[in-house]
Amino acid sequence: MSRRKILCLFDMDGTLTKPRQAIDPKFDAFLTEVLKPICSLGVVGGSDFKKISEQMNGDDVIHRFDFVFPENGLIQYKYGEEIGSQSIEQYIGEEKLQRFINFCLNYLSNITLPKKRGTFVEFRSGMLNISPIGRSCSQKDRDAFEQYDKIHNIRRNMIEVLKNEFTDVDLTYSIGGQISFDVYPSGWDKTYCLRHLEQEGFEEIHFFGDKTDPGGNDHEIYNDSRVIGHKVTNPEDTRRILQELFKL
C-alpha cells in the first residue's frame, strides 16, 4: 500500500507533545524520517497556528507534515499551503459573541482560585478558549490547576452554567489540555478537519488522541466512523502504538 493511501492524524497536546511543551526532537525525527515514508502525516489541534508551530519545532511543520489543521481544522494547510479558513465571528455574529464573552468574564470574576493570572478568554478564528486561571500562568501553575480542577471541577461546572445560560446559541464545549476549555459552534469539533480529507483518496485514516472520553476534545473524532481511533496516554505511548501498527 502506497504512503498516500494511509494517513496518520495526530492530536498535539498529550499525544505528540507533553501539554504546552515542544515535541521531543527524537520523536519528531521518528515521525518525519521513519514514519513519513510509510504514510502521510497530519496534525489537528484546538490551538492556533502560532502555538502549533511553537510546539512542533517551527513554522516548517506545514512542510514536514502533509496536513496541518489549527483550531480543529477551521484553518487548513495542505502540503505547505493555506487552503482555507472559517470564522466564529462571522458565523455567530458580534452581538451574541460579546454577550457570551461578557458573561464568561463576569462569571470568572466571582470565583476564587488558588491563583489567577491573565488572558481568561482567548479569541481564535474558529473558537473561544476559556481559562479560569488565565493562559499566562507558569507551567508550575498549570500543573497545580490541573490537579485542583480534578477535585473541584472548575471547568465542568462553568460549562454547565454556560449551557444553561446560552440555550439560544448552538455551541459545543470541549475540555482539553490542563487549564482551559474550547467553545465553538456545534459541528466545529475536530471532525471538522475530516471534510478536507474526504477527496484525498485515503483508504485508512488513523487518529491518535488522549482526550477521547466524553467531554474531551478528541472524543468526537476518535469515535467517527471515518477514522480508526487510537487512545494514547502520552507521546511515548503514541510512538509505541505506531511501532506496533507499522511493525517498525
UniProtKB/TrEMBL annotation:
Q: Which CDD domains match?
A: HAD_PMM
Which coarse location class describes where this protein primarily resides? cytoplasm
Q: Where does alpha-D-mannose 1-phosphate bind?
A: 20, 124, 135, 142, 180, 182
- Know the name of this protein? Phosphomannomutase
- Active site location: 11, 13
- Metabolic or biological pathway, per its Swiss-Prot or TrEMBL entry: Nucleotide-sugar biosynthesis; GDP-alpha-D-mannose biosynthesis; alpha-D-mannose 1-phosphate from D-fructose 6-phosphate: step 2/2
This enzyme catalyses: alpha-D-mannose 1-phosphate = D-mannose 6-phosphate
Entry's Gene Ontology molecular function annotations: hydrolase activity; metal ion binding; phosphomannomutase activity
Tell me, how does this one assemble? Answer: Homodimer.
